[in-house]
Amino acid sequence: MSSVPLKNILKLVDPKQTTEIRRSAIVVLGELGQREGDTSEAIHECLRDTDQGIRLASIVAIGQLKIDAALPELLEKIKHGGLESELAADAVAKLGVKGRKALQDLMGKVAPGLRKYIASSLAASGADRADADALKILQDKDPAVVEAALGSMMGSIPNLGASQRKALADQLIELVSNKKQPIATSMEAAALKLLAVFDDPRIGKILWERVQPGRNPDIRMAALQSIGKFTTSPNKEQLAILFGCACEPDFRMAAPALMMLKNVKVTDKSLNDWLVLFKAVDSATRQFAMDKLEGFDTPELAGALLPLIRSSDRKFAEAATRKLTELESGRKLLSEALLEAETPDQYWQYARMLVPIAKQYPARWRDTVFKKLTKYIEENDRRADSLVFLMGETDAGDLRERLETFAVELRKKKAYERAYPFLRTLARDPACGMSARFELATVGLKLSAKDFSEDSRAKDTCLHSFSTLLQHQQNDEEIFQQLEKVKWLEPEDLYYLGFHFADHEARHKKFASLVLKLVVKRSPKSKLGQNAKAKLKTSGLQ
């Protein structure tokens, strides 16, 4: 450009022009990069203008034109903070060695909040020149300074030429790889973030080394956040490292590992390696594993899911439960877990889970469950309640039939004490039939202590059972006819029954009379027979 047009542009900087025209002219002069004539002086003069827009434009132009004479005033502006301070720091950094040295000297003299402006400018300038000194800023103890410098350098790297990029990458690699002179953790973390901007194949190995367990957490995190760019298909060793990171309690560590694992295909061969994710502290990692392994159905997968149904995260526990019940291996495992559980609470948990799917099990499964149920009933073990619930919810009729058949077989063997708990369990079901309730009443009568005191008889459950039976029949003779067929009841059992109803059940006098007469019939000459006659007489039942 000739000097005539330049002079014409300089005229537009004159204070007589409007602020907008002056600011535009300053911008154009800075972009032209020519300092002929009075350009430098005119722009320098604008640095003192009363309009901030003019001052800001002049600061930028001073840096572009490298007007050294403005250095003292620029340094002064840096001390005052604000946008002018930030732009002034950038302009000084562009003034060459003298400007950069001035910034370095100023770093220790300004307020902490202003140091980040200086650091950012020095770092950007250093990146442009692949200057090793600029990397020293990353060692600053102030996190804000390091962050500003790091951001500035990362923004400058894409604009560097190939040779400059390689030179800076070499310096960074040498910096983090120098075992004789190890750098501070904060600087190494910053350097790793910078390396991630490059496309250098050497960087992947450096990052993987720093993700290894045992390394400083900040270093591991910095490396992990960048490693995905350099590894698209992790090998077995690298996958193991990622699994470990994904299980870390700090989700800042787990998240980038999960992002990488998201793109890794699970195979039948590698499936078991993925199961370690179910041991993660964070439920998000466990949920990721569940989603990732969708479509697989193995005993190992079911075994890894089983402990998760007791997770404190209720939503996740429900998801694990649904998943288990969907898997064939899961349903099998739940059945096994039910029968091997140690506490009533565990039994209840498994029983509730199995109710919706129990009908899918083969018939022999109910045989196995009932066998366990009979054991618990005989041992008066509270785990029996959950099995009664499970079998009742899935086929109540079958359970009633099994319990009654089992109890009657025991009673026929005169194992009355063993039979009674099964009849009592059966009677809890409102749908229990009269035949089973009659069995309960008669077996209970056989086992009764037969204490004739009024208080004892009021508490005797067998007497209550007979009372209930009588209330549900149209007449007392129906119950008596069944009772008459029970040959295994002794006269003393019948006398106790008849004696009670003769005293306290006026509405069932007929039943009492029939029972006492049966005692007389079966044992006419015995003392019981005589007592029965006397009771009939005193009660007016003859």
Task: Provide mean pLDDT, rounded.
Answer: 88
How many β-strands, per DSSP?
0
CATH architectural name of the domain at 1-110:
Alpha Horseshoe
Strand content: under 5%
Protein name: HEAT repeat domain-containing protein
InterPro entries: ARM-like, ARM-type_fold
Organism: Telmatocola sphagniphila
Which features would summarize this protein structure in a list?
mainly alpha, Leucine-rich Repeat Variant, 0% strand, 542 residues, ARM-type_fold
3D structure, described in words:
It comes from Telmatocola sphagniphila. This is HEAT repeat domain-containing protein. InterPro entries: ARM-like, ARM-type_fold. The chain has helices at 3-11, 19-32, 39-46, 52-65, 71-80, 82-93, 97-107, 112-129, 132-135, 143-156, 162-177, 185-195, 202-211, 217-227, 236-246, 251-261, 271-274, 283-292, 299-305, 314-326, 328-340, 344-354, 363-378, 383-412, 416-427, 434-447, 454-459, 461-471, 476-484, 491-504, 509-522, 527-538. With 542 residues, the chain is mostly helical. Among the domains are: 1-110, Alpha Horseshoe (Leucine-rich Repeat Variant), CATH 1.25.10.10; 130-220, no CATH class; 450-542. The radius of gyration is 46 Å and the shape is rod-shaped. The mean pLDDT is 88.
